[in-house]
Design brief:
239 residues, alpha/beta, Rossmann fold, Helicase, Ruva Protein, domain 3, 2 domains, five-stranded parallel beta sheet, 11 helices, 7 strands, 13% strand, globular
């Protein structure tokens, strides 16, 4: 079996597995439980704090075959496909590589069609601030009157570059940098599960170096494990 990087292997698959961002998860849980969800969300925050992860969890909640719920089963075909990034009605777009208006128009043409498999089509647009002005104008028309079977999740590290007209049509959540203690505790549970021999102080060092980003913390852990030959030692970090 090929090696899977820790950030992908240990990506949270439900709201209760998330580290931090309680203000976001609780608001989404309440909306799901009351069936009062906005049609467009904007997640802002630095890299590696959970924007795409929360978007995928939301996609599972909306399309779980056991029923729409804030606690998806995680086992049905739809949940498994979302976790593996191949759910046909979850469309992920990297705006940094598709900035042009023609790309956006092609995307928005598909919005009118009903979902192939799930209840909702979920459009996740990452680094949305990279879109051109023409692309934003094209997106605006759809955000004003979206079909009932569509949800948009926009994610950005630079919300200041997003037009006010787009911001005003989204429910905005600011995702916070994670505290070193939160990252360290998560890394500790992970190395225990992976049965990696660890000197305790190494995790605190990695957590501080992560600078609030869980993904960076996991990447640093991956590097340290590789350098240490499957073990974590302070002497390896100091080199």
């Amino acid at each position: 079996m090929s090696y899977q990087v820790l950030a992908r292997k240990w990506r949270p698959k439900s709201f209760d597995q998330l580290v931090g961002q309680e203000h976001v998860s609780q608001a989404l849980i309440n909306g799901l439980d009351q069936e009062r969800l906005h049609h467009a969300f904007l997640f802002t925050g630095t890299r590696g704090v959970g924007k795409t992860t929360i978007a995928r969890i939301l996609a599972k909640c909306l399309n779980c075959e056991q029923g729409m719920s804030s606690r998806p089963c995680g086992e049905c075909g739809s949940c498994v496909d979302v976790d593996e990034g191949r759910f046909v009605d979850m469309i992920e777009i990297d705006a940094a590589s598709r900035t042009g208006v023609d790309d956006m128009r092609e995307l928005l043409e598909s919005v009118q069609y009903t979902p192939t498999r799930g209840r909702y089509k979920i459009y996740i647009i990452d680094e949305v601030h990279m879109l051109s002005a023409s692309s934003f104008n094209a997106l605006l028309k759809t955000l004003e009157e979206p079909p009932p079977h569509v949800k948009f999740v926009l994610a950005t590290t630079d919300p200041q570059k997003i037009p006010v007209t787009i911001l005003s049509r989204c429910l905005r959540f600011n995702l916070r940098r994670l505290l070193p203690d939160q990252i360290s505790a998560y890394l500790k549970s992970l190395v225990e599960s992976e049965q990696i021999e660890t000197e305790p102080e190494t995790l605190a060092v990695l957590a501080r170096a992560a600078d609030g980003s869980m993904r960076d913390g996991l990447s640093l852990l991956d590097q340290a494990i590789a350098f240490g030959g499957g073990k974590l030692a302070m002497s390896d970090l100091e080199t």
